[in-house]
Amino acid sequence: MSVKDDIIKFCKISGLDVIGFSECRIFHELDPYFNKRKKLGLENEFEEKELDKKINPFIYMEGGKTIISIAFPYLYDNDVNGKVYFSNYTRGRDYHLVLIEYMKKICAFIESIGAKAVYFVDSNALPERYIASLSGVGFIGKNNMLITQRYGSYVFLGEIITDLEIEPDKKVEQKCGNCEICLSSCPTSAIVKGKVGINNNSNICLSYITQKKDIEDFWFEKLDGRLFGCDTCQRVCPYNKKVELSVIKEFKPYEHMRTPNLKELMNIDNKLFKDNYKITSCGWRGKNIIKRNAIINALFIEKDKIITVEKDTSPYIRDYYYRLLKFFKL
Asked: Which distant-in-sequence residues (6+ apart) come within 8 Å of 105 by Cβ?
């Protein structure tokens, strides 16, 4: 077997069966894409602003020859229980920690055969979906999600740069055709018609809005049950209708994430946050973002009732609480 086959076999033993390889090179062809998004003001606060870090993998490994892209399926079920929900990707253990554990083992295996390897899990600015498409892992849909054949878009992505020279896989071309279900279903029209991804406005994507520290009042009614993340464009996508479910045990949803308790979330304290929510993929934003979103959703569900927040010691939460009362004229 080749080195490529050995790496694929090792990944499959770990339960990872969607792996692709591409040449490690500077992605000059993405210059116009990133420059146009910057010119249109479509970059969000979480994005790296320096162009070179987005297109040049040699910044991260000087002698890199191959980028390995690995998809981690996370979907256990696609049920939305009740009026409020957490996005599917947040319901199990924090994917950053899970992927790091797997990627360390794969890098150790590559190093055991005398090569160098560096892994990345949301820890660089490289265009991971674009790299995944170049590597044959999937294609980038009109909703800007990476869509795989087996798991649809319900995957996390990790990359490994190695100095091994490995035969690249064939790029997966875009397969959406004339379908525009995600465009018409997006509640804020963040997905825009035209060249895939280039005009999509992540600044008004509800997944992004639920994570922002500061949001304007007009977003309150748009949350519509979303506690963290959105999933609308994924739920309506035809490629996600008959996907295989994940067997990665770490992504099995916690019950409190599958069936969230609004009253508990509105009154979340440090201990409860640490025990139940910090361990998930929404924990990095801290308890106040979750608490704020819970209060917003509670007021919309109860409409004309004043919702009591029992454990409120934060000026940040009080500000949103009184803004919401004013919004509802309570």
From this structure: 14
